[in-house]
Design a protein that fits this description.
Shape: globular
CATH class: Mainly Alpha
Bound molecules: heme C
Helix content: 55-70%
CATH architecture: Orthogonal Bundle
Number of helices: 5
Strand content: under 5%
Oligomer: single chain
């Protein structure tokens, strides 16, 4: 019985670290540089266009972030066919660094 327990917990521990490891703000920055920078500016510094200043995006509105990025908003295209859900989570982590 104890043996099974040890096998189970080590399996769980393994898959947990797998699930969490890939999500970092650095990966979010890379995605940002490739997909978002043209409109939202280098390091999220708004280039003075109509696009939203992402450094001011409210930190308590993650669901709004995911919704707007997935489905697009006015001048912004939808990203759901381009980016995975995990990629959007990475972008969220990057946006929350406020470019610092
Ligand atoms: C083609 C230009 C363009 C690109 C590329 C672009 N955006 Fe946008 N984005 C906009 C514009 C314009 C707005 C303002 C939309 C509005 O509120 O009218 C906006 C708004 C937003 C908002 C605010 C939405 C809200 O709820 O108010 C977020 C978050 C956002 N963009 C994230 C991203 C992310 C992340 C990427 C890269 C995956 C990205 N954008 C790429 C043009 C762009």
């Amino acid at each position: 019985m104890l043996k099974y327990f040890i096998v189970l917990t080590s399996l769980l521990g393994c898959s947990l670290s797998f699930a969490q490891l890939p999500l970092t703000a650095e990966q979010g920055k890379e995605l940002y540089d490739n997909n978002c920078q043209t409109c939202h500016g280098e390091d999220m510094v708004n280039p003075g266009t109509v696009s939203y200043d992402l450094r001011k995006f409210p930190a308590d509105s993650k669901s709004r972030f995911l919704e707007s990025v997935s489905n697009g908003k006015n001048g912004m295209p939808s990203w759901k066919t381009v980016l995975s859900r995990d990629d959007m989570e990475r972008l969220w982590l990057y946006v929350m660094t406020r470019g610092r």
